[in-house]
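Structure ticket #2291
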Amino acid sequence: MDRGPGDLMGPYEIAQRLGVTRSRFQQLVNRPTFPKPYRELRGMKVWLAEDVEAWIKEYRRPRPPADEEEQG
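Resolution: structure written out below.
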């Protein structure tokens, strides 16, 4: 039985995952390295979560744990 493409992420979920604003998300989406959307729905695009996670792993620097950020 086909279970579909897997988990999907919209702009809100991706921006939250990256810890960026919506405008910064739009800048990132326009980069040639950012994955292409899985589907374009009426007024919104969705991405495969595995594609987004792979992009994050390759192109984003890991963030320090929250307690390290507070210590400076």
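Closing remark: The first strand starts at residue 8 and ends at 9.
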